[in-house]
Structure formats: C-alpha cells, structure tokens
Amino acid sequence: MRPSPLARDEAPAAEPDAVAVAASLAERFRSRADVLDRENRFARENFEEIRSAGLGVLPLPQQYGGAGHGLADVCHIVRRLAHGCAPTALALNMHLMTLGSLVERWKIKRDLSWVAMRAIADRRLFVAAAMSEPETGSDFLCPRTSLTPRAGKLLLNGRKVFGTLSPIADMFAVTARQGDQLAFVLVPPDAPGFTVRETWNALGMRATGSHDLVFEGVEVSPKAVFHSLPLHAVDSVVLAGVVWFEATLAAVYLGLIEQALDFTRTALAPAVDRTSPTAQARILTMELGALEETRRAVAALVSEAAEAWDAGGDESERLAASVAAKTYAVREARRVVDGCMSLVGGRSYAQSCPLSRLYRDARAGGFHPLSERLSHELLGWVGLGRPVARLSNATGIA
Ligand SMILES: Cc1cc2nc3c(=O)[nH]c(=O)nc-3n(C[C@H](O)[C@H](O)[C@H](O)COP(=O)(O)OP(=O)(O)OC[C@H]3O[C@@H](n4cnc5c(N)ncnc54)[C@H](O)[C@@H]3O)c2cc1C
To answer: Which of 181, 203, 225, 367 is the most buried if burial means most Cβ atoms within 10 Å?
Structure first.
C-alpha cells in the first residue's frame, strides 16, 4: 500500500492528483447541492463525474486496476467531496467502504475475490451496501432477509431500507441470514425478483437515493456469496468493514462541518470588521473559535483512526479509534451547524441559505451504526482491554 500523506489537516505533500480532482469536483457539487436537495433528486450527474474521474476505484489494488489508496487517503478524499456536497460524499462512502471491505478480505484470504475487484475496476462499477432492515434497524449483523437453498441455487427474500446509491448501483452487497450464518451476497440490479422502490423522501441527505430494496425469490449463485460467518459475530473481515464504514462516515461529517464553517467565516467577517474592536466583535470571534476548535478535534480523530488502520496493530483498538471518530464527528456536526446558524443569525433560517440544508443533513448522522449507545459500550469494552468478537444492539458487545 502507498504511504499516506493525504490524511493530514494541511495540504498534502505528495500524491496530489486524487485530492486535487476531489477539490475541483467539490466546487461543482456545491453549486448543485441546493437544487438536488430541493428536488429530492439523486446526485446522478455528480456520480457520472466521479466515475469519469476514477474516484470510484480508490481503494482497489493497483494490480487489479484500482488506485491502491489506503483508508487515510480515502477519508481525505471523501472529506473534500463532502466539503462540496455531503449527500454525494455519503453515497460514495457506502461504495468505497464496500470496496475497502473487499480489499481487506482479499488481503486476508488471497482467494479468487480478486476477479470481482478486477471487474469493478475495469468497468468502474458502483456497489451499494444493503444491510439495514425495518425490523432490525442498525443491528446489521443479524438480518431477517434470508438465503435458502433450492436446486443448487440460493433464493434471496427480504426487504432492505436506506438503500443509498440505489438509482445507479451496478451491484448490491446484501446481508442475509443463511441458517445460523450471516452471508454477504452480491446481487445485480436486474436480477428477476429484485425491485428498487423509490421511497426516499427524508429530512436531509436527500440526494442520496436511499430507497427501499425488495427481494422476492431472487435466485443467486452460491458463488455470489463472498463472505459468511456466524450471526452477530465479528471476524477480521467484518471488523475491517466496520472500520472502513465508521472512518469514511466520520470524514463525510467532517467535510460537512468544514462546509458550514466556510460559509460562516465568510458571512461573519464583515460584521467582525464593522464592529471591531468592540466586545461584540470579540464575542463573535471567540464563538467562531470554539467551533474551529471542534473542527480541529474531529479532523484529528478522523486522521488518527484512518492512519492507525493503515499502520496495522491491535484490531479492537483500531476499531475503537474509528468508532470514536464517527460518534464524535456525527454528534459535533449537529452542534457545529447549530452554532454556525446562531452566529450567522436569522438569515441562516431561510431555505436558500446553505446552513439550513446542512442543518438537516447533519441530523442524519445520529442514525448511522454503530448507534451512539453501542459505540459507547464498545469504547468502554475495549477500554477494559477486551477484544471485540460480537456486536449487537440487543445483546451488546462480547
Ligand atoms: C442518510 C442515511 C443513509 C443510509 N444509508 C444506508 C445504506 O446505504 N445501507 C444501509 O444498510 N443502511 C443505511 N442507513 C441506515 C442506517 O445504517 C441505520 O440502519 C438506520 O438508520 C436504522 O436506524 P434505526 O434508528 O431505525 O435503528 P437502530 O439504530 O437499531 O435504533 C432503533 C432504536 O434502538 C435504540 N438503540 C440502538 N442501539 C441501542 C443499544 N445498543 N442499546 C439500547 N438502545 C439502542 C436507538 O436509540 C433507537 O431508539 C442509512 C441511514 C441514513 C440516515
């Protein structure tokens, strides 16, 4: 894997290409964010540009047509994209974390899964992650969706919610129960019996296309199952997937924080200049400074978690670092946007103000797994020096 100069707060010293591309795409995405939100429309044009720019293959190994970036680089790029459009970055993160998980699995198993990576890279496919269900919520290691054998094939039945990226996904990585095992299976969008129900109409993150996914007797080959393990269990592959998910998600909400602060600095500067050096100007500056402090803390946690993962070492510790980064980032994103709105004042309440959109987008953060309660239990558990072998909202960490 390449060294990771991109994850720091300052400008990267090397490998600027993907970051520069992401920064320039982010500018274009920012100009579209408002209309996508208002029209509740999936960010299709952004994904065409992401595909053409090659940002969809970031984590795949170079020998299989990817860009060979580690988690720290990927987080840095996701953060830049979220600086322009948080829903686009969130939707891309579901794809990138799925690829990251495939890569980590391949590193452990060294099996034929490279064939799937090669196909994804060559054809620049987007892969959605279909895990959440209405009945099980974020308890993603214990789905109700089932895989049952029939005449040498497997039948997939169930319903997923929050199917982010579904309007353009070329493949869906679906979790299903197969006996007492949790199976991860790849399903193409044109599989007979698979329907995307266009239900997504949410408070925020409206351009993510997170529709419902219905599987009614979808026939899949046993070869499409790319990983399985006991329900609720955490092995090295699942652990790596959770780390990729938590860290890239934290990067999305860090980019959102940065977008809100950018707007606030620009909006506030004239008021500070006009009133300086009065107490009012000082208070505004101090309040902005407190939010800047939070931004730096979130950035430090994201970098620490992603760099720790790339560096190797104790798995549970690295899992805890990513969970802490994500829990902190999503909570602080809500607080920072609130703070930005009160600093900017009443005009931030208008639909036309980007802060009112970011306020709604930031609300999504609290619903991503691991839930805040489970995250805190995990941090306490790892703090007690115990390894993580099982994850469940219902029965906790073990
Ligand atoms: C914008 C957006 C995009 C998303 N995209 C995807 C996607 O692409 N793929 C996907 O699979 N999912 C996706 N999700 C879904 C997400 O991952 C969650 O599964 C989903 O939000 C379910 O949350 P929930 O609150 O219903 O369930 P849960 O997190 O299970 O929570 C249900 C209730 O249980 C409580 N609870 C949770 N944990 C504990 C605990 N340990 N102890 C006690 N109480 C607890 C909660 O407080 C809550 O009241 C997305 C979500 C959002 C908001």
So the answer is: 225
Instruction: Measure the CA–CA gap between 238 and 162, rounded to whole angstroms.
Output: 20
| Confidence category of residue 117, pLDDT binned at 50, 70, 90 | very high
Q: Is the bond preceding 277 in cis, omega lying within 30 degrees of 0? A: yes
Q: How far, in Å, from the CA of 211 to the mean position of ligand 1?
A: 15
Token digits of residue 190: 């044109």
Prior bond to 370 cis, omega within 30? yes
CA of 181 to the centre of ligand 1 (A): 21
CA distances from 41 to 207, 209, 222, 291, 357 (A): 5, 7, 35, 31, 14
CA dihedral 74, 62, 94, 109 (to 10 degrees): -110
pTM passes above 0.85: yes
3-class DSSP state of 279: helix
- The Cα–Cα gap between 232 and 234 comes to 7
DSSP letter, residue 233? B
Nearest of 250, 237, 290 to residue 100 by alpha carbon: 237
Residue/partner pairs of 311-320 with CB below 8 Å, 24 or more apart: 315/236, 315/239, 315/387, 315/388, 316/239, 316/382, 316/386, 316/387, 316/388, 317/382, 318/243, 319/239, 319/242, 319/243, 319/378, 319/382, 319/388, 320/378, 320/379, 320/382, 320/383
- Decide: 166 in ligand 1 pocket, CB within 6 A: no
Interval between CA 394 and ligand 1 midpoint (Å): 13
Structure confidence by residue, pLDDT tens digits, 211-231: 999 999 999 999 999 999 999
Q: Residue 124 CA to chain centroid, in angstroms?
A: 19
Q: Is 88 in the pocket of ligand 1 (CB under 6 A)?
A: no
Decide: 333 in ligand 1 pocket, CB within 6 A: no
